[in-house]
Amino acid sequence: MYLRQITNREAGQRLDRYLYKLLPQAGTGFLHKMLRKKNITLNGKKAEGNEKLAAGDQIAVFFAEETLRKFMGHEPKGNPADTAVPASDSAAGISVEEYLRAYKAYPDVSVMYEDSHILLADKPAGILTQKAAQTDLSLNEWLIGYLLNGKEITASELDTYRPSVCNRLDRNTSGIVLCAKTVQGAQLLSSLLQERTLHKYYQLYVKGVVRDSQMIEGCLSKDTRRNKVTIRPVPQAESSGAEKESYIKTCYRPLHIETDKTLLEVELITGKPHQIRAHLASIGHPLLGDYKYGDKDWNDYYKRTCQIRSQLLHAYKVTFPELNPPFTEISGQTFQTGLPESFIRASEQTAGI
After folding, report:
1. Span 199-347: which CATH code?
2. In this predicted model, which residue has the larger pLDDT, 243 or 306?
3. 96-195, which class in CATH?
4. Which of 153, 178, 291, 322 has the fewest CB atoms within 10 Å distance of its CB?
5. Residues paired with residue 41 on neighbouring β-strands, in sequence order
6. Is the pLDDT of residue 88 over 80?
7. pTM, full prediction
8. CA-CA distance, 3 to 126, in Å (whole number)?
């Protein structure tokens, strides 16, 4: 018999989905058959597979060791309480050492807030949120390495739940990234983002003088081959020939006006790739440092004088709605991080336009 006890981190998911991750080489039909025949039980009883798992639940698998090894795709790691770290994590093709390497590689990532379910990380510009290629290291690997290093998660738990980032920032966008440490945390953040009840705010420098707060709308289409988006006004939206268009909404207000630029606060109502950068550029106010959608000559001036090498876009604040237990600690709370030093350098410089 192979026994697994559900941890707080794994709780909240359905039994059948848990089993698919625990035994990835077994077919879904086979797993349901094993549940019917009580070769897999939940808390010593027959289960259907649609039960929602709670911390402390026990799952027993009555397979021969060879069969168990075959369906797991690796040697069984034993009880989740084990702290031994295996050489590799075959389910993802990633070594545990790689997670720890990512954690050590990014010492400038700071933890703004953390509880048993979620973590808010302050990401510097230049770090990927998620891998773009198999050889990349990203904030996602940093998160798992951080939890492994702090003994908050064991290697065996990675078979059935993998902590992950829940929103994506561009490599050169800095600021707050939402991370889930548990299934319940992932479910919460996913629902808040989908329902748009979590408010996300950015600060950024744009070219020109912006005096009034505005809410702007548009339709965004993405050219995947060029990794570039196009914005059209809503009344003129048509099929772009690239990909299906998405409705977008962006709110902004000026915080500080300078001779050639304005520091804006932007609330992202919808969240699409490159939305802020492309949307503001489409109304004549491109971001400072943004070479994809911006003003090359203006960017070059700040690159020479202030070493601004990428867009000044910082996800600086998030506000949570009212929430029920177990999330009362963050209910209605606002979390804010300071601006990177590159913003200070830019604020002390002016270019003629």
Report:
1. 3.30.2350.10
2. 306
3. alpha beta
4. 322
5. 60
6. no
7. 0.81
8. 43
What phi and psi, each to the nearest 5 degrees, are found at residue 10? -90, -15
Mean pLDDT on 313-338:
97
Tell me which residue of 166, 241, 169 sits closest to 198, measured CA to CA. Answer: 166
> Nearest 5 degrees, angle CA 78-CA 161-CA 124?
125
User: Measuring CA to CA, which residue among 317, 318, 315, 307 is closest to residue 341?
Assistant: 307
Is the pLDDT at 192 greater than 70, yes or no? yes
CATH number for the region 2-72 comes to 3.10.290.10
CA distance 14 to 16: 6
pLDDT band with cut points at 50, 70 and 90 for residue 179: very high
Cα 177 vs. chain centroid, distance in angstroms? 6
- Residue 110 and residue 335 in contact, taking contact as beta carbons nearer than 8 Å: no
| Tokens encoding 276 | 């802020």
Query: What 3 state SS string does 56-84 have?
Result: CCEEEECCCHHHHHHHHCCCCCCCCCCCC
Q: Where are the domains of the chain?
A: 2-72, 96-195, 199-347
DSSP string, 262-331: EEEEEEESS--TTHHHHHHHHTT-PBTT-TTTS-HHHHHHHHHHH---S--EEEEEEE-----TT-TTTT
Nearest residue to 218 (alpha-carbon basis) of 291, 173, 277, 169: 277
